[in-house]
């Protein structure tokens, strides 16, 4: 007799008996999330690679995405929400995660927390090694892991208790609680139970002509509600982010230009779509010749991707200053080289996801995003619909790093909801996310740098080709940013830099933390070490001699009379530079197989758009009950804008940050705070918040006729305004509330002052730069070619630290990404389209980081603050490369430096 | 559309009976099953092996050890086993992550037949034999012959692995395992080396097993090197002839040439680790 499991499976979920009837093959994660409402269990890869979905089965951590739901029968299943609610050990751990800033975006946090609870039940005081072993199955892309280790080990809290939480206070993030309990609602967490499911049909070929078969017959056979193709796009079947370069179709028309490009979408009931195999979709492919690299794409007989872009050239950026060839000609030494980097995948743990529905004749799209108003702009064009009839509601975003600036799921959601009239949802599979969303540009950079006998730079020439993929996305931004930044934060009087984006049949390259600057820094900072070596000058000293200072023009001819903090960053590294090199020399003296090296590199980054307006508006209102509502539209993708913007606003208003209620970037109620990009939110939206706080303060003081020094004390029903011994009462209930319920309101905007660049790239591209310098200590196994980072010291000029705890989090996380780019990450279309072939750093790969906060105030920044997010990973990869060279004598000019590549280079150099 | 079912039998006889009728796919830890699941879900009924009595666990049997097919890798980590199993235990800790070790089974790692399966090299050094059952009966195959190629094993329709059998080794034998990857954890190996080394009273090697993974379609033992190690104190220079069974390929993780160089370095280190304890 067959022993079939009863159709019903019973188990204990967080102490409660539950009963479900899973499909054959249904994953436990799916049952927990969709049938039992346990959306605190997050799904990142459905392959056991990321560990976000970790739950405890009878006390043992497992990936819920790999467990047939029926296997849970009779088991005790625990998830983060249940653990934190019911178990003191887990509740304590949750607090420690908050104190340490161990959760940034929060998508991996449930997996981290659950894994850590299992460890702490067995080992109450674990060693760092035990923590790494226990948590290694969970990937995090934001934090760099160090604060997670601190939290699990119960180290001293990083956050301070500060009643006001104003500028400079290292308070916990304001939105941290929901991240550690799993209650945070990301793109896949907001759909209603009845939502139809969308599945996008994608090209399996990098370049192919295609035609559809009988779509109506297919829809009828499959029992799906709708099939969408280019013909279903009522507006313009194109999206993009740069005017003049809006060139990517929502659905390809007749020809697909990269593997993973969307050609159609199928919309059906969840139970129907669970059994839908995209291989059954009626489409015929005719494979065409493709070009994958820039050399092939620029060859004479290469297939052309876009009309009007001859030679597959998308566009170029150019900066020239002085006479570079003359300077190189008179230089004492010239270092030169060709450097190459590959595609880097953002690898946020949250795949793109969202939900949409039609409400009162309007379309409402809920999705993870870095730029809700740009999403609205795109939908307006694609839907051909009146803007007022579109609402974009950002969900929590589980990491973005640049890729979630572009739309992904949003057009499909809107089109499907409008076509079916029903609520719809979509979540990209991991492979689909990797195939179809933007990447960091692969680069091929030819660079020559001269120096005189005293070690002063005498000419720098940079020629970079950037593989921008099939469509433009942010490629023009990369082309423009790179020439402005390729000098590094140094005084280079004679300079010529050109960066060109080349189309290939690859996924679109777009925005990724640094917009091409990290690639350029690899070449420039490596050659600086060459020059220092050849001139016999200490490498740190060489950089000090050339560092920009106040009053010295940049390569764009822009002169900052204040705020240039690179020298202070480099100077801050000096103690570690001396001690670490001495220690390395001592360790290397025995001539063992493992050699230690120390490297240094610097970076700079202009905050905000390059010579283009990029205003932010911050609105706030006061309700009659005394609550102050801050409409915080700067998308918090984990970096902390919800906290930072609130701290700046509270400082300007003069009330404790705890008195604020935050409202997010819902386009119906919150004005545009611009995109979370270009390290602009602290600077630009921060300034808008400062202005809004000051304006509201002025209103309040004016109503009671108080002077500027008065203290505002918000309370129930009214504010007290204290001026020495005088106390004014402002009765809010006596004021007339507006349509939003506000009795007072403000909205203030800020746009950084920039000036256009001329034909030679001369002008004022940014109102503010931030500066950074990193020191890396690492060890190389000379026989295996493996590299083990030992320690980083990172000095960052942030102008005025808004929140030192969040700054450390940005620094550690940025270093982890720079480390991945340097040592292991390379996206190869068709080959590394998942998180076990595409490797990002694990908890065991990140060494301790010492963050040195430098405060060289900037006149334009809010209270002097500068942006930080992108600056962090710019010096990391070159610092690693320079340390590898210090250890081995080998300069690596191709990233990533895998063990095989390093071993081969060591062998060629004849060292082993 | 054909209705598929989920079977979770409690004893092996029933499981074999279900398997004999075809149209079913065995599943245990799910760690290889789900990542390779086709769009639209399983085409076949599923046969859950995790509730079969006696299929999970490690026990003495005859002159050796029996590891049940559904034994999890974390069971191996926790088991009280002689030092010859140290390499297997070290490999068990490298199978994915704790999450994977708590779900993935020893037999699953074998039948998945990845060239980079972490469990195979150490099991080869333990002279493992694979016990296979079907309604027709049982048979035992040496592990070296069980995995026949990339994703290919010697299993006929209706057959399943029920256990591994590991004969006793000299008491003083000690195992070791090294894995080389591009990151610290959760990594598919570039190269793996497993050894079991036994020594006589004078400290000379009198039992040697060396196996290498991820350098050939199926992990291979290195008999010439094993022979060369006998009678030595482990200080044997690895020669190309020793590595003759290997045929490493170039892939995203590393070149074939690199793999051979790395194997040479890792063998020396792994033998030394086994010698030094």
- CATH C-level of the largest domain in chain B: Alpha Beta
Instruction: Please give the share of residues in helix of chain B.
Output: 25-40%
Radius of gyration of chain B, taken over Cα atoms and rounded to an integer in Å: 19 Å
How many domains of chain A, as an integer?
Answer: 4
Lateral arrangement of strands in the main beta sheet of chain A: 8-10-6-18-15-16-17
Number of strands of chain B: 14
- Structural class assignment of chain A: alpha+beta
Could you give a short account of the major beta sheet of chain B?
5 strands, antiparallel
Q: Roughly what fraction of the amino acids of chain B lie in strands?
A: 25-35%
Textual characterization of the structure:
The complex is a heterodimer of chains A (912) and B (277). By secondary structure, chain A is of the alpha+beta class. Chain A folds into four domains: 1-161, Roll (Ubiquitin-like (UB roll)); 190-290 and 349-399 and 403-436, 2-Layer Sandwich (Aldehyde Oxidoreductase, domain 4), CATH 3.30.365.10; 439-609 and 759-908, Aldehyde Oxidoreductase, domain 4 (2-Layer Sandwich); 616-750, 2-Layer Sandwich (Aldehyde Oxidoreductase, domain 4), CATH 3.30.365.10. Helices cover 28% and strands 23% of the residues of chain A. In chain A, helix 16 packs parallel to helix 22. Chain A is globular and about 75 Å long. The model of chain A is unreliable at 1-5 (pLDDT under 50). Chain B is α+β, with helices and mostly antiparallel strands and 277 residues long. Chain B has three domains: 6-46; 58-167, Uridine Diphospho-n-acetylenolpyruvylglucosamine Reductase, domain 3 (2-Layer Sandwich), CATH 3.30.465; 174-276, Enolase-like, domain 1 (2-Layer Sandwich), CATH 3.30.390. The longest helix of chain B is centred in the last third of the chain and has 21 residues, at 256-276.
